[in-house]
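Octopine/nopaline transport system ATP-binding protein
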Amino acid sequence: MAPVLKVRELRKAFGAASVLNGVSLQMRQGEVISLVGSSGSGKSTALRCINFLETPSSGEIEVMGDAISAFQNELHETEIINAANIRIFRRRIGMVFQSFNLWPHRTVLGNVTEALVYVLRKNKREANEAALSALSKVGMADFGHRYPSQLSGGQQQRVAIARVLAMQPKLMLFDEPTSALDPELVSEVLKVIRTLADEGATILLVTHEMRFAREVSNRMIFLHKGVVAQDAGPEELFRNPATQAVKQFLSSVISTAA
């Protein structure tokens, strides 16, 4: 089976600051991969480039056989090949952010149905049915008529996950989905992600919850200064760190991941 996602030599610079320096990875359907590493290693930037929320400086990204390439021309400007595929990517990829990004003036149900109606062109009945199904999966079906201000942070993040699920993406990207939550609310969001993983979702996860990453991931990819320092199964990465950078990072978090 062809990979769901291929990333080849992905590079991203913001002015003189180089954040990604040639990241390559592949994902199979149903695989859960955690991107881990120190702050500033390029994890969130990699996710945003995969979904073209950030334009890569260079490299190629392929989703289910459709590819987009970026390169620097002679004027040092970024040019995109097959830019029309960005719309295809965004139909196949769902992203959950650190912040919940819910519309405050819309109910929970309205937040989830918005893209179903205006992007997928579903009628109101179809959109409501799909939204309620997605909300049921995250335990929020009974909150459809509430507004975001009436929900806890964990509940808002579960609605944000439902909004992505309703679009039936082929690949889900999670960018530190628990970082904006109070500690007592983290577990309810991690439980939803674990359930999705158990059900066979394809997930690329950026997280600082190392114990969770170790338990839920098929592979863990350690980024250091914008490059892949190690790509291995969780137990291999923890027991046999490939570089000093990986070893130092794990030594700082081992008490929470053991």
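thats it. The chain has one domain: 31-52+89-257. The longest helix spans residues 183-198. bye
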